[in-house]
Amino acid sequence: MLMSTYEARLAALREQMAKDGLDGFVVPICDEHMSEYVGDYAQRLAWLTGFGGSAGSAVVLKDKAAIFVDGRYTIQVRDQVDGKLYEYVGTAEQSVIGWLGEHAPAGSSIGYDAWLHTKDWAKSASAKLAKRDAKLVAVEANPLDVIWEDQPEPSLAKLDVQPDEFAGKSAADKRADIADWLKGEGLDATVIAALDSVAWAFNIRGKDISNTPVPRSYAIVKADGNAELFVAPEKLTDEVRVHLGNAVTIRNYGDFPDALAEYGEQNIGVDPERSVAAIFEKLEAAGAKVVQKRDPTILAKAIKNDAEICGHRAAQARDGAALSRFLHWFAEEADKGGHDELSVAAKLAEFRGQSDKLMDLSFRTISGAGPNGALCHYSVNEETNRKIETGTLYLVDSGGQYRDGTTDVTRTMAVGEPTEEMIKRYTQVLQGHIALAKAVFPKGTTGGQLDILARQYLWADGVDYAHGTGHGVGAYLSVHEGPQRIAAFGGFNEPLVAGMICSNEPGYYKDDAFGIRIENLILVEERDVQGAEQQMLGFETLTFAPLDRRLINLDMLSESQRAWVDAYHQQVMTIIGPQLEGDALAWLQSQCAPLA
């Protein structure tokens, strides 16, 4: 009989832990590729606890358990996870390892799946547990997989080819670049474990994770330019096989662990941030010299080439038209009643789906009405679905996956007459958005150095938001792509480079009341600054859809901020206007008129 309650699942895990000789077990949201978003088969934390966020972990001991989430999920975790079963822990206050260091019983054995954690995590956890005379134990079989009777099978969706016209560079040339890098580093081969890195390096895409077009696969690229691709053979079409060519040997996905043993006595580069501990263990056991090096595709993938930038602009223009049609519909319909978070999100998906170029959404739409908008990474379901009510704010964060680009955009709209507080906070968020969009900065500047620009107006009023200001975005790949970020916390020290795409998304969230976020994507570009003594950079805004002018307090804006809004809306008219007609076009014109 399938376990229907989370209490029963927790009890079953403890029973299996006892059979395995474990006193505790760590359950992350992760897969064998350190992915942010994972396939259904890897949603172990959600199955065990009910938590539906994209980041978090749990630790289960014999007599207690805890669930760990960051500031984005502080409210959500309490709504979804039973506090009688799990202690709620914010990762800003205490890490999983820190909690284990306080709560693991002396002499205990704490289990972990070496295919779901990094080597550094395992090393740190082992050191912390050793201080309590406890030990970290790598399990042969994940106990969650043993007790999860109806666990989904991994996807067998077919792969497809990302054409060179969108990729901007052939897969052979990309692998040649990797081979050159290997030679320069004195390495014989490198393991590529991140799913989007494999997809990018081989110019292939897949459907194994919802909203992220990647195939479940590993790759090993060698210094001679040849490569091995580990993927379920039934996922390959004749077109993909021809595309990969003779320089790529196809091997079964399940062969990857044993194949690592074939690289004994070789110098192998492995990314410690994006490769699980088990990969290091297999290679080291075979006698390989493992050198910790960043995946060589990471920076190349982040710095978009001309074809990718051109594709992004086309995708953003197409997506902006769909979003603008939706915003017009919302402006006409929201006050009439009868709409809710699910129906409105479905309507937005319908507008996007009118394009035959849409491949998928880029993530599950965040559709937050009233108080639910205050949950910055809220995920609506039948139980939480709220009506769209007059006198509230509605926040929608959404995006599309197109063959030529990935979009991510957030707009906040007033339903009925907004309060003075709503207008004030929206305007402060807008001021921060403008400050970042207008930033000019020297080469070598990191996102962490720029983050304060977006927060300054909120900070001046004693408020803030508990998420980063910006993340990288892929080219028909992951909507969250590194290594660049615009965030004040977490050690984000990656310099911004021309060609990188980031989001610009400051926000404000008032618990049990409303949420505000304004998000556009921005492209890092070189700036010609008269008299500059060094190379300067700035941002080109890529996302175009009108702002809700009812929420803007003109008296709070400076002349330059008003000019920015007017110039932005003029660009919206230039790019989006020709794609609309009739009432939708007339509405867009009214929204994009100069501020009074």
Automatic annotation (TrEMBL):
Lineage top rank: taxon: Bacteria
One Pfam short name: Peptidase_M24_C
Domain Creatinase N-terminal: 9-140
Residues in Peptidase M24 C-terminal domain copies: 535-595
Keyword terms: Aminopeptidase, Hydrolase, Metal-binding, Protease
Keyword Secreted: no
Residues passing through the membrane, by range: none
Ranges for domain Peptidase M24: 312-526
UniProt similarity note: Belongs to the peptidase M24B family.
Name of the molecule in the record: Xaa-Pro aminopeptidase
